C-alpha cells in the first residue's frame, strides 16, 4: 500500500520538473502499458505511469485553454461573469472574468483583467467588455516571481486591459454576498487595519499595502495575514477541542459518540471557513489535508503519522496537479513534514513553552533548503516573529475577527469586536516593523548544486535528536551558505545582463571586482521593478554592492526603480544625463561627456550630446570595451542626439548595441546604424506595449543590415560575456513546459 502511494506521489509531483509535456501519443501509450503491469509486482510502476498521465493531461488542458496566438494583442468585445473579489488600488480595478465568450472567437474560460479608472465592480456581476487581450507571459530573470507559472496554476488563459464596458446583470449568489461583506468590513473603524481584517476573514489581501507586505515578508509572517492552512486548521482544532473537552467533563450527550461528532463538526467548520474565504487553491489544499488528518484520527491512528501525510499529498495533487507549480504547496507540506520528524518520535512530555520554541526554530531550519531551492527571501527574524505573532493572531485576532463579523448585524457589538481586533493587529504590525528594521530579510546568492546538497544535509543533521553522533557536523555543513564564492568574470572581461523589466531598461555590467548598473527599470505606483526584479537578480548573482548606478536620463521607465535599488544595496555613486531631474535622495552627479575609466582591464566611456536640453536626447551613452569586444548602451537617445554624437567624432563602433528608445521610430537612424555597425542588437521592451515599440520601419533597418535582434519579450533576460566573443544567452531558453517561447 505504502509503495503504491509513494509511486502515485512521485508521478504526480514529476510535473514540476518536466521541461516539456510529452506528446499525446506517448501518454496514450503509457496507459495500456500501466494496465499490463498491474497484475504483476510492477504495480508501483503502473501507479507512477497513471499519475504521470493524469498530471500531464491536466496540464495540457490548461495550456490548451490559453488565448490563441492570433488573438494576442487584439481588442475584442466579450461577455463574462466577475469572479472572486475585485481589487481596487490606485485607480486600477483588477479582477477575474469567468465563462468568457466572444461572438466569433473561442476564448479561455478564465481571464485576469485590469481596468484603469474603471468603475467599482462586484463579484457575480455579468459584463460586456472591450478588452485588449494578451497571452499569459511574465518577466523572466535570474531571480523573481514566475508569473507565467502562477497564471497556469490558477488556470488563467489570458490577461488583458479593459477599454470600456457595460454591466449586463447585477451581482448575485455567494460571491456577491462575500463582496458585500467585504465592503462592510472595510467600513468599520479598526485602527486603519480594515484591509488586514478582510484578509483574515475573507482571504482578500488587496487591502494590505506594499509597506505591510514588506514587513510580513521580512519577518516571515506572510502566512498569518493570508488565509492558509493554519487558519483553517485552527478553527477545526478549536471545534474538535471544544467537543473533546465537553466529553471529558461529562457534558456531552452520552448517546452521541463524541469522536465522530468532533471530527465531523471540525471538518464542517473548516469547510465553512474555506467557503467564506473563496475556496481558493491554498484553502482547498488545507481542507483536503484536514479531512485526511481527521479521518486518520477517527479510524487509522495505527498507521502512524507519515501515511496520512502521504495520502494528503496524493489527494491534493489528484484534485489539482498544477499545485506543484506553487511555492505554497511545497512549503505547507514541508512544514508538516518537519514538525512530524521533530515531534512524532519524542520521548516523554515537554513543557509547552519548549514545544513552541522548538517548533519555530526547527521550521526555520527545516524549510531553509526549500526556501533556497524556490529562490525565496530568508527571514532572520522569522523564528522570533512567529513565536510571538502566531499565538497573537491565532488565539486573539482571528477569533475576534470571526466573531465580530458574525455579530455585525447586532448594533455596536460586531463593530466593537472588530475595533478590538484591529487594535491588536496594529500593535502587531508595529512590533513586526521594528523586527524587520532590526533583522531584515536576506536573499542569498544562487548556490551550486553541491553547496545546496551540503546545506540540506546540514539542516537534516541539526534536526536529529540531541545526542545523535555527528549532529554538530550540521553546523559545518551550513558554511557554504555564506562562503560559496560567486562566479566572477576573469580580468579583462565583463559579464553583462540586460534584465527583463518590461517597458523599461536595466543593464548590469560586472567586472572582476566592480559593478555598474545602467538604468534601474520602471516603477508603476506600488509595482517597483527595481525592488521586484533588479535587486533580487543582483542578490541572486552574488552582488552585494553597486559601484556606479548610471541612470541614462530621468524618465520613469529608466530611473523609476533607482530609489528601490539604493534601499536594497549600497550604491557608491549615481551618474545621470539628467541629474537635476532625479530625486534629491539619489545625490546624482552629472554625466560627463568623454569621461573614461578602467576597471579590471575593462574600459568605460560616457558621452552626452552637448546640444540636448532635456528628456530622451539627454541620455548618457555608455560604451564598454573588453578584450576587443564592445557594447554600446544608448538609453533613449533620438535621431537628433544620434546626429550630435556622430558630429562630435566619437568612435561609436560596437559589437553589441542596445537599441535606442526601445525601437521607437524616432531613433536608430540609418547613419547611426552604419556608424555603430553592430553584429547584434539588444531590445528591451514590454509585450504588446501601448507605444507600439519596436516600430516596423526601425526593425526593417536592422534586418536590411543583417543585424540580429535579441528581444526581451521572446528571450527574457539576456546574458553576454563581453570579451569572450560568445553567443548571447536568453534566460527564457531554460526549458519550462509552461513558458512561452
Automatic annotation (TrEMBL):
Its main location: membrane. The lineage of its organism: Bacteria, Pseudomonadati, Pseudomonadota, Gammaproteobacteria, Pseudomonadales. The chain crosses the membrane at residues 43-63, 232-252, 258-283, 303-323, 329-349, 361-380, 392-410, 417-443, 449-479. Coiled coil: none annotated. This is DNA internalization-related competence protein ComEC/Rec2. Residues 503-687 form the Metallo-beta-lactamase domain. It is found in: Cell membrane. Keywords: Cell membrane, Membrane, Transmembrane, Transmembrane helix. Pfam families: Competence, DUF4131, Lactamase_B. It is a multi-pass membrane protein.
Amino acid at each position: 500500500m505504502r509503495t503504491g502511494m509513494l509511486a502515485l506521489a512521485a508521478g504526480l509531483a514529476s510535473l514540476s520538473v518536466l521541461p516539456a509535456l510529452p506528446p499525446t501519443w506517448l501518454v496514450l501509450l503509457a496507459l495500456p502499458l500501466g494496465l499490463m503491469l498491474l497484475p504483476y509486482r510492477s504495480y508501483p510502476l503502473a501507479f507512477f505511469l497513471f499519475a504521470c498521465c493524469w498530471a500531464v493531461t491536466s496540464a495540457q488542458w490548461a495550456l490548451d485553454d490559453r488565448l490563441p496566438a492570433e488573438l494576442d494583442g487584439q481588442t475584442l468585445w466579450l461577455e463574462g461573469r466577475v469572479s472572486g473579489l475585485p481589487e481596487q488600488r490606485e485607480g486600477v480595478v483588477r479582477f477575474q472574468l469567468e465563462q468568457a465568450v466572444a461572438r466569433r472567437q473561442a476564448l479561455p474560460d478564465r481571464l485576469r483583467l485590469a481596468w484603469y479608472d474603471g468603475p467599482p465592480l462586484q463579484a457575480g456581476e455579468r459584463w460586456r467588455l472591450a478588452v485588449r487581450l494578451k497571452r499569459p507571459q511574465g518577466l523572466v530573470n535570474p531571480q523573481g516571481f514566475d508569473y507565467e507559472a502562477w497564471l497556469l496554476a490558477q488556470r488563467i488563459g489570458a490577461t488583458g486591459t479593459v477599454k470600456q464596458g457595460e454591466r449586463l446583470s447585477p451581482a448575485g449568489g455567494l460571491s456577491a454576498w462575500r463582496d458585500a461583506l467585504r465592503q462592510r468590513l472595510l467600513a468599520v473603524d479598526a485602527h486603519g487595519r480594515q484591509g488586514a481584517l478582510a484578509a483574515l476573514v475573507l482571504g482578500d489581501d488587496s487591502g494590505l499595502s506594499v509597506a505591510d507586505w514588506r514587513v510580513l515578508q521580512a519577518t516571515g509572517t506572510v502566512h498569518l495575514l493570508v488565509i492558509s492552512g493554519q487558519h483553517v486548521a485552527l478553527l477545526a482544532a478549536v471545534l474538535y477541542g471544544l467537543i473533546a473537552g465537553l466529553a471529558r467533563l461529562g457534558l456531552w450527550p452520552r448517546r452521541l459518540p463524541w469522536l465522530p461528532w468532533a471530527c465531523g463538526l471540525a471538518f464542517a467548520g473548516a469547510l465553512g471557513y474555506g467557503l467564506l474565504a473563496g475556496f481558493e487553491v491554498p484553502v482547498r489544499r488545507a481542507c483536503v489535508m484536514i479531512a485526511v488528518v481527521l479521518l486518520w484520527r477517527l479510524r487509522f491512528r495505527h498507521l502512524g503519522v507519515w501515511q496520512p501525510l502521504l495520502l494528503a499529498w496524493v489527494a491534493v495533487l489528484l484534485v489539482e496537479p498544477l499545485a506543484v507549480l506553487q511555492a505554497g504547496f511545497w512549503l505547507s507540506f514541508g512544514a508538516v513534514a518537519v514538525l512530524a520528524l521533530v515531534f512524532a518520535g519524542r520521548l516523554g512530555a515537554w513543557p509547552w513553552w519548549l514545544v513552541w520554541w522548538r517548533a519555530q526554530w526547527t521550521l526555520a531550519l527545516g524549510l531553509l533548503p526549500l526556501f533556497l531551492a524556490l529562490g525565496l527571501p530568508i527571514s532572520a527574524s522569522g523564528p522570533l516573529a512567529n513565536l510571538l505573532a502566531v499565538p497573537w493572531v491565532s488565539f486573539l485576532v482571528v477569533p475576534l475577527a470571526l466573531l465580530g463579523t458574525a455579530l455585525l448585524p447586532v448594533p455596536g457589538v460586531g463593530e466593537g469586536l472588530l475595533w478590538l481586533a484591529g487594535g491588536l493587529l496594529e500593535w502587531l504590525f508595529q512590533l513586526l516593523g521594528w523586527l524587520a528594521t532590526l533583522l531584515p530579510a536576506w536573499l542569498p546568492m544562487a548556490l551550486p548544486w553541491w553547496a545546496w546538497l551540503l546545506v540540506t544535509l546540514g539542516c537534516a543533521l541539526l534536526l536529529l535528536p540531541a545526542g545523535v553522533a555527528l549532529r554538530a557536523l550540521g553546523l559545518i555543513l551550513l558554511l557554504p551558505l555564506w562562503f560559496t564564492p560567486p562566479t566572477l568574470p576573469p580580468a579583462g572581461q565583463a559579464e553583462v545582463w540586460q534584465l527583463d523589466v518590461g517597458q523599461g531598461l536595466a543593464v548590469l555590467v560586472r567586472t572582476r571586482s566592480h559593478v555598474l548598473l545602467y538604468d534601474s527599470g520602471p516603477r508603476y505606483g506600488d509595482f517597483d521593478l527595481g525592488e521586484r526584479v533588479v535587486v533580487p537578480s543582483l542578490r541572486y548573482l552574488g552582488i552585494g554592492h553597486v559601484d556606479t548606478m548610471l541612470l541614462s536620463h530621468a524618465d520613469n521607465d529608466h530611473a523609476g526603480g533607482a530609489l528601490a535599488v539604493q534601499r536594497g544595496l549600497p550604491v557608491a555613486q549615481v551618474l545621470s544625463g539628467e541629474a537635476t531631474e532625479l530625486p534629491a535622495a539619489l545625490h546624482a552627479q552629472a554625466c560627463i561627456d568623454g569621461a573614461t575609466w578602467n576597471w579590471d582591464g575593462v574600459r568605460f566611456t560616457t558621452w552626452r550630446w552637448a546640444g540636448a536640453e532635456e528628456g530622451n536626447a539627454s541620455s548618457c551613452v555608455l560604451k564598454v570595451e573588453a578584450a576587443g569586444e564592445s557594447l554600446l548602451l544608448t538609453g533613449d537617445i533620438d535621431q537628433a542626439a544620434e546626429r550630435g554624437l556622430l558630429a562630435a567624432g566619437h568612435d561609436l563602433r560596437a559589437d553589441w548595441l542596445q537599441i535606442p528608445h526601445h525601437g521607437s521610430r524616432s531613433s536608430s537612424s540609418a547613419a547611426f546604424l552604419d556608424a555603430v555597425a553592430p553584429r547584434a542588437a539588444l531590445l528591451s521592451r514590454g509585450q504588446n506595449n501601448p507605444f507600439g515599440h519596436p516600430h516596423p520601419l526601425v526593425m526593417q533597418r536592422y534586418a536590411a543590415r543583417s543585424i540580429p535582434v535579441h528581444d526581451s519579450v521572446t528571450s527574457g533576460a539576456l546574458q553576454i560575456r563581453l570579451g569572450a566573443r560568445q553567443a548571447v544567452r536568453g534566460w527564457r531558453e531554460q526549458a519550462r513546459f509552461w513558458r512561452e517561447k
